[in-house]
Amino acid sequence: MATDEQLAGEASTTPIGAKGLPGTVSRTPEELANIVSLFASSDEWIDKVRLRAERRWYERLYHGSDYDIWVISWLPGQSTGFHDHGASSGAFVVASGILEEHRPGERSRVIHPGKPRAFGPDYTHDVLNVSLAPAISIHAYSPPLDEMNEYELEGSQLIPRERAPAQGETLDQESRVQGRMPVDRTGALSIEQVLSAVRARLRRLSPDEAYEAVAKTEAVLVDIRPETQRAIEGSIAGALVVERNVLEWRFDPTSSTRLPVATDHDLQVIVFCSEGYTSSLAAAALQDLGLWRATDVVGGFHAWRATGLPIVPPGTA
Ligand SMILES: [Fe+2]
């Protein structure tokens, strides 16, 4: 686990020199990629993250002599607009959610958590959250960011706009997002993108973990499969059967048709379906209602059965 102190310690071992003067030591893009990966895997940034509807939220968490580190949150639709990073090299990694990177003349890149993107000076890009879920990313720059320039994309050319103050990926162009979004960025996502986005906010459970949670805690196991599927595949004794089409109404504590068990938002609802796909979407829908612990079973009923956990065979219910 990397801490601020560890990262600061790295910086403090580096000779200090002003940008452009003898003695300057800048981190390479590869080093910055390692730094953001290390920092993202720590728990030093999680409780600092905020979400802001009016613009992307960001904060510089570390400012050393040779590099700085920022954390940024992105709600759906938020973007940077095209920009460079002055003379700084940089790297960023998605810690949660999904981002998309655009560069003129290149195919857009979907950036999933885990694999950092690194770049040298004079690199221009536009980073967006086109998913339906919030995203969080960790960024590092060397030398520390002190200049950013915005660009307009005209055809395939980037045309400089006014010079922007250095605020670390802080350029927001909501008007561009809202008013001049190219027609192929209407927010339409493939089901794979939607699934990946919702799973980024779930702490999914293996069948064994789900079994243990139900046995040892107040967690509720919920079977959302349709009746025909349950009849063919069998069921799990003790699981609540709440089909997908009524799920939200049964677990929203404010719903007049809620289940007796759905009294508050802290209830851990563990959803399963046949193979663990629809259940992820269903768990995310429950999270949207404030049931923040809602999750699902990886692999669904099939994985539960394959693990050897107890089931009620079809025809014996
Ligand atoms: Fe950037």
Describe this structure in words.
By secondary structure, the chain is of the alpha+beta class. Helices cover 24% and strands 23% of the residues. It is built from nine helices and 15 strands. The strands form four sheets. Strands 1-2-9-4-7 form a five-stranded antiparallel sheet. It starts with a helix and ends in a 10-residue tail after the last helix. The N terminus is likely disordered. The protein binds fe (ii) ion (FE2).
Short recap of the structure:
With 317 residues, the protein is of the alpha+beta class. It has nine helices and 15 strands.
Describe the SSE topology.
Elements: H1 4-12, H2 29-40, E1 57-63, E2 68-74, E3 82-83, E4 89-96, E5 99-102, E6 109-111, E7 117-119, E8 126-128, E9 135-142, E10 148-154, E11 157-164, H3 174-179, H4 191-199, H5 207-216, E12 220-223, H6 227-233, E13 240-241, H7 247-251, E14 269-272, H8 278-288, E15 295-296, H9 300-307
Parallel strand pairs: 12-13, 12-14, 14-15
Antiparallel strand pairs: 1-2, 2-9, 3-10, 4-7, 4-9, 5-6, 5-8, 10-11
The structure holds fe (ii) ion.
The site of fe (ii) ion has 6 residues, from loops.
SS-derived structural category? alpha+beta
Work out the radius of gyration. Answer: 23 Å
What does the main sheet amount to?
5 strands, antiparallel
* Ions and ligands: fe (ii) ion
Helix content: 10-25%
**Based on CA inertia axes, which overall geometry fits?**
elongated
The helix/strand order is HHEEEEEEEEEEEHHHEHEHEHEH
User: Kindly, what is the distance between the CA atoms of the first and last residues, rounded to a whole number of angstroms?
Assistant: 48 Å
Strand content: 15-25%
Which strand order does the major sheet show?
1-2-9-4-7
Low-confidence regions = 1-23, 164-168, 170-185
DSSP helix count?
Answer: 9
How would you state the average pLDDT, rounded? 84
Count the beta strands: 15
